[in-house]
Amino acid sequence: FAPHWRSDARACIVGLTTSHHKGHVCRAALEATAYQTREVFESIERDSGVKLATLNVDGGGTANQLLMQFQADILDVPVVKPTNLETTSMGVAFCAGLALGIWEDVHEIKKLWASSRTFVPLMTTEERLRNWNGWCKAVSKSFGWVDVQREARGRGSTMDDESFDEFEDAQGGRDFEPSSGERYGVAALFLCSAAALVAGVAIGLKRGR
């Protein structure tokens, strides 16, 4: 997964002792979501040069107060929760609505957004660094579990040894990593598809107005 793009990685649970129970595993799953979010945003910051100042969140996960607070702590930025948790789909509907003339401009749309709660970082710098180092160590343990070439051959790949070598050379000896343009292109394609799906919603809003 992003931002590592390692096909030889596999899921793992590390650091368990006899004192841990299912509650710790559940919490680790929540914290892993926040850790990976930080990894992705650090990658974005390196590519864009723009530092994250605030994280606006939405979706079902925002109902978990522990996750939201830990996300703010590990990112060291405020996490803002909106009143409407389905803002992703609403954003696509707003785009369709702008095209249909339901709203005049983005300034009119901005008035429809409201915050219900802001989670501010409470974790100390030392604790944040200790936790982050532990995550990075755990991630490193998930690499190297699969011989990618051998697995591909075992699945009936027709690529011979020479072709595999040429492929690896072309990738610089690393696993495939999409360029920024490819990543954003996929995102743009998804948004276009979503816009087509919610166009009916915008049309319905216009008719009901």
Record field, number of beta strands: 3
Profile the largest sheet. Answer: 3 strands, mixed
What is the topology, as strand order, of the major beta sheet? 1-2-3
Helix content: 55-70%
Describe this structure in words.
This protein has helices at residues 22-48, 65-75, 87-100, 106-110, 125-140, 148-154, 161-170, 180-208, and strands at residues 55-56, 79-82, 115-119. It has 209 residues and is mainly α. It has a 3-stranded mixed beta sheet, with helices on one face. Helix 1 packs across helix 2 (65-75). The chain starts with 21 loop residues before the first helix and ends with a helix.
Layout of helices and strands, plus pairs?
Elements (H helix, E strand, L loop, with lengths): L21 H27 L6 E2 L8 H11 L3 E4 L4 H14 L5 H5 L4 E5 L5 H16 L7 H7 L6 H10 L9 H29 L1
Parallel strand pairs: 1-2
Antiparallel strand pairs: 2-3
Helix pairs in contact: 1-2, 3-8
